Amino acid sequence: MKILDGTIVKKEILNSLTKECSELSQQYGINPGLAVILVGNNPASKAYVGMKKKACESIGIKSFEYVLDAAISEDELIECIESLNQDSQINGILLQLPLPDHIDSDKMLQLINPAKDVDGFHPQNVGKLLVGLPTYKSCTPYGVIKLLEYYHIDPTGKHIVIIGRSNIVGKPLAVMLMQNDKIANATVTVCHSRSRNLSDLTSQADILIAAIGKPYFVTENMVKEDAIVIDVGINRIDDSSSSKGYKLVGDVDYHTVKKKVSAITPVPGGVGPLTIAMLMTNTLQSYKEYYVN
Ligand code: GUN
Fold this sequence. Notes:
By secondary structure, this protein is of the alpha/beta class. It has 2 domains: 29-113, Rossmann fold (3-Layer(aba) Sandwich), CATH 3.40.50.10860; 139-271, NAD(P)-binding Rossmann-like Domain (Rossmann fold, 3-Layer(aba) Sandwich). It has helices spanning 6-28, 43-59, 74-86, 105-111, 123-131, 139-150, 170-178, 198-202, 254-257, 272-291; strands at residues 2-3, 33-39, 62-68, 92-95, 159-163, 187-191, 207-210, 228-231, 235-238, 246-249, 263-264. A 6-stranded parallel beta sheet has the order 1-11-8-7-5-6. Helix 2 crosses helix 10 (272-291). Guanine binds at residues 94-97, 119, 139-140, 168, 275.
């Protein structure tokens, strides 16, 4: 059984980005810039934004953080997004989700300049992804692709079952994996909360990808012997033995499932680190499109 360690892959990607970022910044006299907008106090979102900032600093991307009150109006948020769209120091804009209920997330994502949409959430970029045109690939699905590539797992012809149909992970990942592309060409099944006989479907997977946000959801009986399991879930559960009062677990019951499979990602340390690495990749891509191409 192989553990698919995302931290090694992240390090390798960040090392190469650091070098590229330093060369380009010298050549063009300006560092790439990423704006991160955080609305409200969601603790997980705050933690993610902190990690994104740290990654930016470590590779030479200038980060601009906008922490906005949970009660901010849509108009104020629109003003913030529009000023970042105009700002030439900003190559990427990331609006951390989820947003408070009174703000229409779809409307906000559509206001981000598609050229700065390093999350790949703008419908124009999602459409490009669907038809196979070059675009920003959303960071978590793109991270899964990079993980498969690093560990020489070729999806071609394999049956990949994805549990979860979110716009952030399930849908774009299904599109990437079914595409006629390098790390792709799979037969993809997407399951969700209304799927009947879920374990019959998951048991057919050569590669099973869990992205539903439910701790320990995938159990041993749902997985085929020697399958590859990719756990995208990052769930906080209470843990009085930890100083933080919680611990992070995936969507997969790791300790029982790992005995049955040929490879599995841990949580933390699997897909999570790749999400950040791909955000940095996309930000540098945007910078290059602005200055180099
Ligand atoms: N919330 C959870 N994952 C993500 C992500 O990849 N990007 C943004 N903007 N918000 C998220």
